[in-house]
Amino acid sequence: MLEKEKVRNSSIELLKIIAIVLIIISHAMPYGNFNNYAGYVDLNNVSTNINNLLLAIFRHLGSIGNCIFIICSSYFLLDSSKVNKKKILRLVIDSFIISVTIFLLILIFGNYNISLTETIKSFFPITFNVNWFLTCYILFYMIHPFLNNIIEKLDKRKLLIVNVVLIFLYSILNTLKSDLFYYNSLVGFIVIYFIMAYIKKYMKNFSADKKINIILCCLAFVCLVVSIIIINFIGLKIDILANKLQIMNNFTNPLIIIVSFTLFNIFKQKEIHNKAINYLSSLSLLIYLIHGNQFVVGYLKGSYFDYILSHFGYNNIMLYVLNLTLIYLLGSVSLSIIYKHLIQTNLQKVIDKLYIFLKIIYLKIEKKLISLD
Questions:
Q1: Are 174 and 252 in contact (CB under 8 A)?
Q2: Are 292 and 27 within 8 A, CB to CB?
Q3: Which of 11-25, 195-209, 289-303 has the lowest mean pLDDT?
Q4: 296 with 305: CB under 8 angstroms?
Q5: Which of 11, 99, 103, 286 has a CB 3.0–4.6 Å from the CB of 125, allowing a cystine?
């Protein structure tokens, strides 16, 4: 979502486009969040309703999309040794402008009771983790050169040991219980990063074997779906799993990791260059910031599903989810193009000046701190 190469392989960029579509489908589900609306469905609870079970399964597509983006970024960052500070500043400014703009539009044209907390979060989207992926990515991007230094000093055996430990603690055990061993999303990013490092350095034959990757991808995805169905079945009989239907919905889930890595290997093998695909892929971050905004996935989506429930009912709920997915996709792509050409292109001079100003302040503070005994 966030990486740019000088000459980009459009196959990987196409995979990023697929990933953002998967995330949009996931966000189009009528699940609850900070604004539990009348039409929301608690996707954590097991259900005898086939529609609810389908919603729960489709909700996992977002984790696959997130994992794919982390994998794509990791693949390129492993060859990077520097942090582009202007890039970080641009990401923060883009997030701020989009968040505040949507807030003002909702405030002016919407008929919602916006809380003080939601207002404050709109002006500090990075600080308050409103767009969790972007906040986590920035932190991850800032430390990636140090991770590369660690990886370079590890031989094959030691890197394998690190991966085994990380996968066991933060993939396998984390899937069973998400708060074990101080897990958080940044730790999840690092786990994916180390897995990619090992695969990129020492599993080139596996990465190039299209047949085995297709087989593994299909098997892992089928196992994921079957596991959700089994959890739902057991949860109907045993109360301990009655509200655990989303327990598999984490981008570090072993099955989701396998699906995402094998998809990456499959797409990476074909080297193509297509300007249209590259352009659409370059909009991924903006699409994410727009359609994933707290007011869009909260208030606007809530109003949509309240209307659907009261006028049509939920018998064809998946049809309405796909309809909202199309609305999200077309709307966010259109707005992203407008933002990119009317605002983002004119921000560079502001970013350059702001960067120089912040750099001067930082260097003065750094000099002062270094001079202290």
A1: yes
A2: yes
A3: 289-303
A4: no
A5: 99
